[in-house]
């Protein structure tokens, strides 16, 4: 059976799974391009998503670090806020690269979400969020994000020490590309504009 192949204009849903196989967040993406192994998708600001909160009602960042990966989470209806993102999701890479754009369509910076790839379903790509991330500024300067959370996630069993080692290696690979201003940090797609005739991607019903 071949992996799904999506056409420009299709809507897919990127799902972030937890280690126990349950589904956390759902992010709908408008397909810009797909070759069967690398998906380019668009998520505009204010698009409805399925997010997550701690079961006691707090936002993730409102909890002390030692509690963030130990308190159960629940899915909630939410919106993608502040920036629009163009995402490059490669099936075999432990990261996805996000181009951030402001409300006027100006490119801001890149954010590299380090992830465990889980392949494709008919509805979209599945990933496990690796907690650790990399932020890249125009000009190639880059830095780690959320290192303390990644270490705590290992202690809490959210990711394994082996996965974190692999994610760090991926981050170093990404950082080297950024420092050299090589693809995808060479200016490609920084002038991206979505087709004005395409509506924002939507979520299927029944997810909550």
TrEMBL record:
Domain DUF402: 61-182
Alphabetical list of Pfam families matching this protein: DUF402 (PF04167)
Alphabetical keyword list: Hydrolase
Annotated protein name in UniProt: DUF402 domain-containing protein
Taxonomic lineage: Bacteria, Bacillati, Actinomycetota, Actinomycetes, Pseudonocardiales
